[in-house]
Amino acid sequence: MSSVKDSSAFAISDFSKKIIKATSIVIIMVLCTILVLKGFKVILLILAGILFATFFRGIASAIKSKLPVGDGFSLFIATTSVLLMFSIILYVLLPRVSSQLQTLEKELPVAAKETRTKLESTQVGYWVIQQASIYKKKYERDSERLTLFFSSFFGGLADVYIIFFLGIFFMIQPRIYKNGIVLLFPKAKRERADQVLLTIGYTLKQWLLGKLFSMLVVGILTGIGLTILGIPLALTLGIFAALITFIPNFGPIISLVPAFLLAFTKGTDYAVYVCILYAAIQALESNVITPLIQHKMISFPLAMILIAQVILGIFTGVLGLILAVPVVAIIIVLVKMVYIEDILGDYAIEVKGEDKFVDKEVEYQKLEQ
């Protein structure tokens, strides 16, 4: 009798089992999420390689549609043309940009010092500088700065190396990798998986082409505007603005800093004009160019992009800030095609580019059957 009581004392109730099971599931989900986020940099490197390949494959497909050439030869023409164009641009602009970079290297510290002196003469500016000095003293240690520099520098070189060779592999034989992913799905789902992957590829190509066009416009307008205002080193600042525009939200702010410092040395009114110029160009890019680009692809919720940048930036650094938009684009396509269309059965929603690979009427009939 006593043994029965002892065994019942150690028995676990059904409610306790449910609590333990729920807690275990939550812990496993949290650990899996942390593992995915920690290893997400690998996914971003693969995505960057895909974008690298998409750029050249997009040019090759355009050449193939205009000329009676094969896939391999069109890709050869595309890569050769791009390399030749960049070589010409470097030959023409490098001497001037190089001299301007040397001047910029000398003038920026002077401009920053003069800007600080002018700011210190105002009460608000003095308070801002004091706060910045406190922050700087906390984190400015020689050993930490040296370690951070070398780790970020060599880490960046390793990332570029990986992206470059991944891009070459994806560019030369994209079907091998796409078909390999499709084969991971059951036979009944392979056709749909192929459609989703093709739609994602189309979306990334359209976004990349649109982004490059946006960068070109921003760079030209910035260079012309700074030249009209009489700001020195306008060409270099315009190229910098074009390149940094690839980073959404934060890019325009970063590109403004050197132009603002140089303008501030000429006078407060010049600094104000530069801020107005950059704000106007950013407004044009956000309200005219970007909506025009998104009209031909999917629409990006700006809040979702900013959230993705913050999350990816925390776990993956600069790479996450740069590639937040294509990550959001892939998520949106997956949600619309896999969840809303396949699971919920709602084919009324529009996914840009899907109609090139999917007959929605046929898919809807399959779902009803």
Summarize the helices and strands and which ones pair or pack:
Blueprint (H helix, E strand, L loop, with lengths): L1 H8 L4 H25 L1 H27 L4 H50 L2 H17 L2 H31 L1 H9 L4 H43 L4 H11 L6 H16 L1 H27 L7 H15 L1 H5 L1 H20 L16 H9 L1
Report the biggest beta sheet as strand number plus sense, adding barrel if it closes.
none
Our count of domains comes out at 1
Distance between the termini: 61 Å
Helix content: over 70%
What is the count of β-strands? 0
Describe this structure in words.
The protein is mainly α. The protein has one domain. The protein has 15 helices and no strands. It has helices spanning 2-9, 14-38, 40-66, 71-120, 123-139, 142-172, 174-182, 187-229, 234-244, 251-266, 268-294, 302-316, 318-322, 324-343, 360-368. Helix 7 crosses helix 8 (187-229) and helix 9 (234-244) packs antiparallel against helix 10 (251-266). It is globular, with a radius of gyration of 27 Å. The N and C termini lie far apart (61 Å).
Key phrases:
369 residues; mainly alpha
Write a compact overview of the structure shown.
With 369 residues, this protein is mostly helical. It is 85% helix and 0% strand. α3 crosses α4 (71-120), α4 crosses α5 and α12 crosses α14 (324-343).
